[in-house]
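Researcher: I'd like a candidate sequence for this fold, 449 residues long. If you have to choose between options at a position, lean toward the conservative one.
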């Protein structure tokens, strides 16, 4: 199938990170079109028509989110671009910002105009320090060429974009923790409602969107929402960036049409290029570390025997019993040599470390998940520990101030659901586990692909 490139169309052009080269390759056309020929409401309508869903993980319809923005008289509105990108396995926003900074700025200008925002913040994870320089240089260039600042292209629309670095906390990717951090406070999530659309940064109406979401506004305005909605499948319209890593021959960032199958994505040379060293595929986390892991058999085919596709609906087919989620598109592949218990423990350690500690189910629960997984992984577990893990993750799920709780609970639940045998093996083969000989346990060999 011919691949469609909307965001990465010009990614390989030499010098595309500079204003002049970007402008010479259709760059900023959507700003001209929007500011000269469209009203803000018309842009919101185009985005609604496109069917674009937020690319930050939850997949919420972008046009609908924009239409919730409160517009009280005399109160400024803000657009915040979420560039925190801390979800393990996810590095697609980094690619966009590093190589196509003007594409993001273009999306931010059109989106700010649509929302009536004269100030836009890019909140970027602290570790992406060198990308801050790239973005600031691009902002200066855009300003020098009349695309930022006062009276952009003579339209009367003013916009300033500021880049704000985070300090390396995963929780600051959660939109309300991000807003707290942006205001200079500790990044603790806020209780919702009120939602940012009503009370966001500086207590003013705010839209928070992911980098990729905002970049996707550019092709939507250039080609029309209708054209965008025809790409992809079902409610998975447009293209999606996938950052692929783990046991694959060609790790990297790929722009996919969401009609391709998971099998094609992993095994074809156009994408991941298969599993190295002739190993078999054991499992995959397709949407960033928070989404449920799936064993190879359920990854490639749904429980009903349908071919699993790389889109929101197909990945979720079967719910969490036999399916997973698209999430942020951080695609992590495991070959037959990987130990699921060890991997689950590593993730639990991460979530425990990153819990802000504000609410007890998350603060205490993530700590216990990590302690028990560490015990099982080291060969000191008890069969009852598996049930205990199950019980703890259930008590976290749905009982926390923000979804970090679920992000910590779901990987444990899915690992036990699909790889319980492997947990049991660690307990019954304690001596082997202690010397790091993980083996496959009783893991069903026929589930490998
Ligand atoms: C713990 C946690 C971390 C998150 N990290 C990110 C992130 O790094 N980038 C991001 O865009 N969204 C992240 N989100 C989701 C945001 O809260 C929010 O839903 C998103 O920025 C909305 O943008 P979208 O509608 O364009 O997807 C995170 C959520 C949680 C609970």
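Model: Candidate sequence:
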């Amino acid at each position: 199938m011919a691949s469609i490139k909307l965001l990465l169309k010009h990614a390989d052009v030499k010098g595309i990170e500079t204003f002049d080269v970007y402008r010479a390759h259709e760059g900023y056309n959507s700003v001209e079109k929007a500011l000269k020929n469209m009203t803000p409401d018309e842009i919101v309508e185009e985005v609604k028509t496109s069917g674009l869903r937020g690319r930050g993980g939850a997949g919420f319809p972008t046009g609908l989110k924009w239409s919730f923005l409160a517009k009280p008289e005399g109160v400024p509105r803000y657009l915040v671009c979420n560039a925190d990108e801390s979800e393990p396995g996810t590095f697609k926003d980094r690619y966009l910002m590093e190589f196509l900074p003007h594409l993001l700025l273009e999306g931010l200008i059109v989106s700010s105009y649509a929302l009536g925002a004269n100030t836009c913040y890019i909140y970027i994870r602290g570790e992406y320090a060198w990308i801050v320089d790239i973005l600031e240089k691009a902002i200066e260039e855009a300003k020098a060429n009349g695309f930022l600042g006062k009276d952009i292209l003579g339209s009367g629309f003013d916009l300033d974009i500021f880049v704000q670095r985070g300090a390396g906390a995963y929780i600051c990717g959660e939109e309300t923790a991000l807003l707290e951090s942006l205001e200079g406070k500790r990044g603790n999530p806020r209780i919702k409602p009120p939602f940012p659309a009503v009370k966001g940064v500086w207590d003013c109406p705010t839209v928070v969107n992911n980098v990729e979401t905002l970049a996707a506004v550019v092709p939507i305005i250039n080609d029309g929402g209708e054209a965008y909605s025809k790409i992809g499948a079902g409610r998975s319209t447009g293209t999606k960036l996938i950052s692929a890593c783990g046991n694959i021959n060609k790790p990297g960032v790929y722009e996919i049409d969401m009609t391709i199958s998971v099998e094609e994505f992993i095994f074809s040379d156009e994408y991941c290029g298969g599993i190295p060293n002739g190993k078999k595929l054991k499992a995959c986390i397709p949407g960033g570390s928070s989404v449920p892991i799936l064993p190879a058999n359920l990854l490639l085919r749904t429980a009903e025997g349908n071919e699993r596709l790389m889109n929101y609906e197909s990945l979720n087919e079967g719910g969490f019993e036999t399916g997973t989620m698209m999430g942020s598109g951080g695609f992590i592949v495991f070959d037959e040599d990987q130990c699921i218990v060890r991997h689950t423990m590593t993730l639990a350690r991460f979530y425990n470390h990153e819990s802000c500690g504000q609410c007890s189910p998350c603060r205490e629960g993530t700590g216990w998940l990590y302690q028990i997984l560490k015990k099982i992984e080291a060969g000191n577990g008890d069969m009852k520990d598996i049930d205990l893990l199950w019980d703890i993750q259930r008590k976290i799920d749905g009982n926390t101030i923000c979804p970090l709780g679920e992000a910590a609970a779901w990987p444990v639940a899915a690992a036990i659901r699909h790889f319980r045998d492997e947990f049991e093996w660690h307990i019954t083969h304690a001596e082997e586990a202690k010397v790091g000989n993980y083996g496959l346990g009783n893991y069903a060999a026929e589930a490998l692909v």
